[in-house]
Design goal:
It contains 14 helices and no strands. It is mostly helical. Helix 6 runs antiparallel to helix 7. The longest helix is centred in the first third of the chain and has 30 residues. One of its GO terms (cellular component) is membrane.
């Protein structure tokens, strides 16, 4: 194996490992502490902010913005949509099995295409519409009632609502990122800091009003069956791996290609399903298997379409200290599927 092949293999392995760790550790913590979803999310956001400051201390390529009230006001929409999407994403994962989570959030791609088209006022091509229809059909198949499923494996209506709303806000967030970048000197890392720090500030009152600080103290003091170490270490691991997943996604897009990256995402989804069945005893019938397969086929077809399109003309914009790296992937939102935005608008590769 030559150096390039080993580099690609290493990056793909890094990305898949980080993504799988995020999903299953998140699920483990939410199963162990289902009444603490907002506190769990708050800790992840704070860890992301801390790691950004550590990175800024280690390298000048990571620039922490100065606090500016006017900038903060302009970024309220993107921060608000980010935290709402994260809350719905967390609640969805709490309610469903890890294997079904891929189906519950299966509308990310169709909704991203729809929201982007509405924003640009430009209709998608026929091929893109076909890809969106394929993914939508996969989602519809997965959520359709199935016979002979155990009660615990049947998703509730509210969990499906969480999944659809999570997908919708991820789609809106992708558009708002592009609108918000100029307010941060076109620095993706500065926007990442504002998004995570702002999301933590917005989320804190809801953690308090939901009584989650009191709940965790009560469980720690009075519930002998509760394993506090699962919540503690799970929060730390997901916070760190959320940061690593951002780096892994950046490297995967930069070192490989959108097609290779999407195939690694598909392989990750397959492994996620297999691990969920073997480790968590998730239920996987033929209907759900076909649903996941159809969603992956539609997503990969879409990626193939976009990778064969002529790259858009670069916009004239101020220099970005991060060399215009992927804005979506640098937002540390602990969402293992956020690579869809990069694939929607792949940057031209350097020779």
């Amino acid at each position: 194996m030559d150096r390039k092949t080993m580099q690609v293999a290493g990056v793909v392995t890094f990305y898949m490992s980080a993504a799988l760790t995020m999903v299953f550790v998140n699920k483990e913590v939410l199963s162990n502490s289902p009444e603490l979803p907002l506190l769990f999310l708050l800790i992840q956001l704070l860890i992301a902010v801390v790691l950004l400051h550590v990175g800024a201390f280690l390298t000048p390529r990571i620039e922490i913005p100065t606090i500016d009230r006017d900038v903060a006001k302009k970024l309220v929409p993107v921060v608000s949509v980010n935290i709402i999407g994260l809350v719905f994403n967390t609640l969805c994962l709490r309610e469903v099995e890890a294997t079904f989570f891929q189906i519950a959030r299966g509308l990310v791609l169709p909704l991203t295409i729809t929201v982007s088209s509405m924003h640009t006022r430009k209709a998608p091509t026929a091929k893109v519409i076909v890809a969106a229809v394929i993914v939508t059909m996969g989602f519809a198949l997965g959520v359709a009632p199935a016979k002979n499923l155990p009660t615990k494996a049947i998703p509730s209506n509210i969990s499906l609502v969480y999944g659809v709303l999570s997908s919708l806000f991820i789609a809106i967030h992708a558009v708002l990122i592009k609108i918000s970048l100029p307010y941060c000197n076109n620095s993706t890392i500065q926007l990442a800091w504002w998004t995570n720090a702002g999301s933590a500030v917005m989320l804190l009152p809801f953690v308090i009003f939901n009584g989650e600080f009191a709940k965790i103290w009560d469980k720690y003091s009075n519930d002998a069956t509760w394993d506090f170490s699962v919540f503690l270490w799970g929060s730390l691991v997901t916070g760190v791996f959320g940061f690593l997943l951002c780096i892994a996604g950046l490297l995967s897009i930069k070192v490989t290609s959108p097609i290779t990256h999407m195939f690694s995402s598909a392989a990750k989804s397959g492994l996620q399903t297999l691990i969920g069945v073997m480790k968590n005893k998730d239920v996987l019938n033929a209907q759900r298997s076909i649903s996941i397969l159809v969603i992956l086929i539609g997503t990969m077809y879409y990626t193939w379409i976009k990778s064969n399109e002529a790259p858009p003309k670069p916009e004239t914009r101020p220099s970005d200290i991060e060399a215009s790296e992927s804005s979506q992937r640098l937002l540390f939102n602990a969402d293992e599927e956020s690579e869809l935005e990069e694939l929607k608008s792949p940057a031209p590769r350097k020779p």
